[in-house]
Amino acid sequence: MKGIWFTEMESGKLATSYKVKKILHQETSKYQTIEMFDTEMFGRMLVNDGAVMTTVKDEFVYHEMITLPALNTHPNPKNVLVIGGGDGGTIREIVKHPRVEKATLVEIDERVIEVCKQYLPETSLELDNPKVTVLVDDGIKHVQEKKDFYDVIIVDSTDPVGPAVGLFSKEFYQNVFDALKEDGIFAAQTESPWVYQDFINKIFKEIKSIFPITKLYTAAIPTYPTGLWSFTMGSKKYDPEKVDRTQIVDTNTRYYTADLHYSCFKLPRFIQDILE
């Protein structure tokens, strides 16, 4: 194979390769390596510590699905927190929602924000929105300091390695619960059900032990390992599968729809077995 190829290694058992047209950026920040490639298939691609974070071609799937099921389950998500998500895509989807009045982004690595502002304007364009506050800080510490404060908390984290490890702990989920108002909702990405079955089982049980309503849902994201990705929602009061359809807002999406809001929670048998 001629030319430059980037290969993502997953758990030492799976490799996915992408043809690279141009290396746009490479650096090592205080927390991680940050790379930006222009790929043949998926356009510009952000890679942190050797793992694909997002691409121009398929980012809308992840960013719509980590935000809108929770935002449309909560009847009045005025005050929303995002932990991680320095590329800005999650914030972009949140501020589209008409009932959101304030969105706070807490990203530990300032360089991710700056690199994405330069190379991913498609995702970072709303980081300067008047509704948005950007804090360069530790999201774990941030939720520890907040009580009964947010309507919705979205954890847009990297894989459970390095600085993100603490975002996948029972102690963290309890702090998230405490930082939410009495009817608050939390959602997070929870990896591939083909690759991380034991991890998903553990995380789901921990979240379920804290939140009265806990639901796992899925989306098809081609640049994430195996293409099938899971998210987990914890809710204090509202069941996402019982939402009044008239409450679901059309925010000019490309993947998420009112029909998909309900269907994404219908899980294949093998994923149901993982959760049990």
Question: Could you characterize what this model shows?
Answer:
The chain is α/β, with parallel strands linked by helices and 276 residues long. The protein has 2 domains: 4-53, Spermidine Synthase, Chain: A, domain 2, CATH 2.30.140.10; 59-275, Rossmann fold (3-Layer(aba) Sandwich), CATH 3.40.50. The protein is 28% helix and 33% strand. It is built from 9 helices and 12 strands. The protein has helices at residues 59-73, 89-96, 110-119, 121-124, 139-144, 170-179, 197-208, 258-263, 269-275, and strands at 4-10, 14-28, 33-39, 43-48, 51-55, 79-84, 102-107, 132-136, 150-156, 180-189, 213-220, 228-235. The strands form 2 sheets. It has a 7-stranded mixed β-sheet. α1 (59-73) packs across α2 (89-96). The longest helix is centred in the first third of the chain and has 15 residues, at 59-73.
